[in-house]
Amino acid sequence: MEERIIQFVSALRAAGVRVSLAETADAFYAINQLGIQDRETFRTGLRATLVKHFEYLSVFDELFPLYFNGSEPSSLRNLDHDLTSEEAEMLADALRQFAEQIRQMLERLLSGEQLQQDELERLAKFVGLHRLDDLRYRDWMAQRMQRALRFPDVSEAVDQLAEMLAELGMHPQRAEQLRQLMAANQRALEDQLSQYAGQRIAGNMSQRTQEESLDGLLNRSFRSLSDADMEILRKEVHRLAAMLRTRVALRQKKAKTGQLDAKATIRANLKHGSVPMLIKHRQRSLKPKLVVICDISTSMRYCSELMLSLIFALQDVISRTHAFAFIDHLEDISPDLKGRQAREAVQRVLARMPSGYYNTNLGLSLTNFYDRYLDLVDSRTTILVVGDGRNNYSDPRTELFRVLARRSRQTIWINPESPHLWGSGDSDMLGYAPCCGAVLQADNLSGLIAAVDQLLG
């Protein structure tokens, strides 16, 4: 039991729940006092000691049954009495009518035998379960293992077996008892597969060290991130922003003197007979003025949210930021971001314009910006666009984007799609790209960090 609790704590940590060593020790003390005879008391004791915030309760409730569920399949002994020799002979005759794999599974259901650990491990490897670390795929993997064991065919075979037994002369009530027993045992095996799938995925999650997990997440494509992965990255953004802030501050400190101003130097040293004593430099502003336009459709949401988090965590090295989001039209989200996290701001915007499938319209969003916010763009403004450049075959309005780019100091586009996909299907990226000073491909958080570093450089 101690080992199982340790595995459970590791799974909680891997799922994002903060569990300290002291809290783990509290859990062991509580279990020693409460015992493990009553499952609900055991569960309450663990939850009270390991979960310190209500937002983690759902994670605890999802993982607990995976590690502490003692249900087992029923067995043939649950019948009113054992089979007579005549009934046993009828059952053997009927079973011989099925193919070997189906017959073996029927015999397992009759005996109430659970799947052995080595069988489960072979199944896991066969369906690819050993590579997964996302609990959202638990049910899907359990279903794949069921199909590998031919459970749909087995269900039909159970009904057929009951009919065959009745035809061979077994009492209909007795045949029905056998059918119900095997159906119940099959449901128990399905529960075992579901529990194993969850345990294996949770184990895969907990086996990753924090460093390996973080390094992998920083370089993992936005499309493959789970909700748990995003929670880790949301917290990591603040650390990365602090690192960037320090780097930008050092860069500004080195460059704050600006270029040598020869005319000002000569004027300042006329009193010294034009022999230079005081060196004058041209002052330059290093803090950019930003207009950020982000696609928050389903395919772009994680990328845009993390970019907004980075940008607004770096406001002390940016002169001013105006943030906009779009799906099928443009929304000014600067007020939503004041005093809030980027995730909360994005959720507020989505409540006003919920996303659907294939309704992204960048062309209309550029029209909205041109009509309402053109005055925000001047020679000191950097326009930052975060999107895949797809319009669902609507008018891309590249001429408006060209006007915006000409009015701005520079235009940078961050696209998570690989360049070889630009221009394919409904992508208008090849029309927007020539208007940009830089087009950066970034499909993970590491790429976004590099893009922001270049932006502030």
Set down the secondary structure blueprint.
Layout: H1 2-14, H2 21-34, H3 39-50, H4 57-67, H5 85-95, H6 100-111, H7 117-127, H8 138-148, H9 151-167, H10 172-207, H11 210-218, H12 227-255, H13 262-268, E1 289-295, H14 301-313, E2 320-326, E3 330-332, H15 334-337, H16 342-352, H17 362-373, E4 381-386, H18 398-407, E5 410-415, H19 429-432, E6 438-441, H20 445-455
Parallel strand pairs: 1-2, 1-4, 4-5, 5-6
Antiparallel strand pairs: 2-3
Q: CATH superfamily assignment of the largest domain?
A: von Willebrand factor, type A domain
Instruction: State Rg.
Output: 32 Å
CATH topological fold name of the largest domain: Rossmann fold
CATH architecture of the largest domain: 3-Layer(aba) Sandwich
Characterization of the model:
By secondary structure, the chain is an alpha/beta fold. It folds into four domains: 2-67; 76-208, no CATH class; 227-255 and 287-455, Rossmann fold (3-Layer(aba) Sandwich); 257-286, no CATH class. The chain has 20 helices and six strands. A six-stranded mixed beta sheet has the order 3-2-1-4-5-6, with helices on both faces.
